[in-house]
Amino acid sequence: MAKATTAFTCTACGAAHKKWAGRCDACGAWNTIIEEAPLSQGPGRGLGAAKGRAVPLSGLSTSEPPPPRFLSGIDELDRVLGGGLVPGSALLVGGDPGIGKSTILLQAAAAFSRANYQAIYFSGEEASAQVRMRAVRLGLAEAPMRLGAETNLRNILTTLDAERPDVAVIDSIQTLWSDTVEAAPGSVAQVRAAAHELVTFAKSRGVAVILVGHVTKDGQIAGPRVVEHMVDCVLYFEGERGHQFRILRSVKNRFGPSGEIGVFEMTGSGLAEVTNPSALFLSERGQPIAGSAVFAGIEGTRPVLTEVQALVAPSTLASPRRTVVGLDSGRVSTILAVLEARCGIPFAGLDVFLNVAGGMKVAEPAADLAIAGALLSAREDNALPPEAVLFGEISLSGALRPVSQTENRLKEAQKLGFSQAILPDASKVEGQSGMALRRITDLTAFVGEVFGAG
């Protein structure tokens, strides 16, 4: 067994000695040398006996002002970032191929440069001429931003250190390679090394770095998950190819609320921000039709109204189909089971199709009542009141549970012309909401009151 290393230190001057002595050779003081235990006594080499410097500590109270922010002028983007881009922060943007990641970041870099911030855009997947062609199509050719095409990490960091821009966009992290790592670009080792160097550079130089990340077939950002832990903000760009709407969602944000969304519309001249997404998602609603329910939801801090569409038809298959788009399929199966067990309404032998209009994705449990309303409306061929919105969580017992931010949901619905809300009985509403509230205790009461059956 290796002998434990012991350190001797002078308490007067801090000089280290290999063995004890009565007098310190460095300062000449007597009887000031003491024996100190090593920092690490674990297996392997450990930290040994050498000590580092003490880190200065501070309390939680501070008089420092909040960090300044760069405003791009794109309100939807600034909203998702928590009020603007923080200098020295690192962001990671992911999304499906062709969804518009490069387009929105090129527009953002041009917007920052027009707001008198120095912006540099590095493209590792396209040549500079291709990026210029996109800029001309988007009407950004006159923006004072600068462009580079490079995949060598050392060259990119050298350029950023010399230029010291306010904002740097790297498209994408999977194309970068470091000459100190013997692996192909896009491998776990290369992605981890490139992300570490870029995040460290952003913190030390005060440059806001925006990284683009590829996604896997499951929709997760490719590469090691540690990259998402290193950055300050993780954004996902969502949307369906067949719809013109694109949603920029923050799933992590150290400088603002997570879960915030920004809504954009894909046009021929790029992505245009949508200031009132509720009106846009409901714009195609016509005459009242069976199987349609309007859900008043909350995305981050923003209330958003979406339409839940259901279709129930007789099935010729032994196992009826359950097709769900934009909703949690497990949650839908639970609601179908509750309807059959607690209300006596079977869906056996029936194909069930559910969809959220506009390509929106809803993950809130508050959408349970709207899902149940759309399913029952489609099954009974009886349209819900067109002036009503629905929200509430359904428990396994069939009871309706209240949800948060009830007042914000009602205000958004009233602003769009809805005059009635169907909600759980225990929901708390302070003051006059200006809407007729139909309070429901459980799912059985909902079936009897809305559809006239017990």
TrEMBL record:
The keyword Metal-binding applies. NCBIfam families: sms. One of its GO terms (cellular component) is cytosol. This is DNA repair protein RadA. Residues 66-215 form the RecA family profile domain. HAMAP family: RadA_bact. GO terms for biological process: recombinational repair. Keywords: ATP-binding, DNA damage, DNA repair, DNA-binding, Hydrolase, Metal-binding, Nucleotide-binding, Stress response, Zinc, Zinc-finger. Belongs to the RecA family. RadA subfamily. It comes from Paracoccus haeundaensis. Gene3D superfamilies: 3.30.230.10, P-loop containing nucleotide triphosphate hydrolases (3.40.50.300). The middle region has homology to RecA with ATPase motifs including the RadA KNRFG motif, while the C-terminus is homologous to Lon protease. ATP binds at G95, D96, P97, G98, I99, G100, K101, S102. A motif (RadA KNRFG motif) lies at residues 252-256. GO terms for molecular function: ATP binding; ATP-dependent DNA damage sensor activity; damaged DNA binding; hydrolase activity; zinc ion binding. DNA-dependent ATPase involved in processing of recombination intermediates, plays a role in repairing DNA breaks. Stimulates the branch migration of RecA-mediated strand transfer reactions, allowing the 3' invading strand to extend heteroduplex DNA faster. Binds ssDNA in the presence of ADP but not other nucleotides, has ATPase activity that is stimulated by ssDNA and various branched DNA structures, but inhibited by SSB. Does not have RecA's homology-searching function. Plays a role in repairing double-strand DNA breaks, probably involving stabilizing or processing branched DNA or blocked replication forks. InterPro entries: AAA+_ATPase, DNA_repair_RadA, P-loop_NTPase, RecA_ATP-bd, Ribosomal_Su5_D2-typ_SF, Ribsml_uS5_D2-typ_fold_subgr, Rubredoxin_2. Residues 351-454 are annotated as: Lon-protease-like.
